[in-house]
Specification:
The protein is mainly α and 124 residues long. It has a domain of 83 residues. Helices cover 49% and strands 0% of the residues. The protein is built from 6 helices and no strands.
Length: 124
């Protein structure tokens, strides 16, 4: 009988400067916002509209934008662009809210999606 549960990470690799793409922005990995998760999940389960929830203080998009804006805005991503990406990724958000995705899975997936949608930077 196999084990059931989440896989664990046994090895963490440190990336050196040669490994990192100079043009790719680095986004902070924020700690999981437990209170925000509960508030948003409760609001949505009570019938809240997905779009309305993305413009107020219980929104994960607003919360993440406050942390990632200094990197994303200079890269050509507006708040509206960012919210659209969060909304388009709502299935993964829902899975995190219900506990079917870990925070690490949700936020790293969202970060990758955001970075891929940044305008291409000119090659120097």
């Amino acid at each position: 009988m196999g084990t059931v549960g989440l896989a664990s990470v046994d090895v963490v690799t440190t990336l050196d400067e040669e490994t990192l793409d100079d043009a790719a922005p680095l986004l902070e990995f924020p700690p999981e916002p437990e209170d925000l998760r509960v508030g948003l999940r409760d609001a949505l389960l009570a019938g809240g509209d997905w779009r309305e929830g993305f413009s107020d203080d219980i929104c994960i998009g607003v919360w993440l934008w406050s942390r990632w804006q200094p990197v994303l805005e200079p890269g050509g991503c507006s708040r509206e662009d960012f919210v659209e990406i969060v909304v388009a990724n709502r299935r993964e958000l829902w899975l995190w809210l219900l506990g079917d995705r870990r925070w690490e899975q949700y936020v790293t997936g969202l970060a990758g999606r955001v970075i891929r949608r940044l305008p291409a930077l000119p090659v120097s």
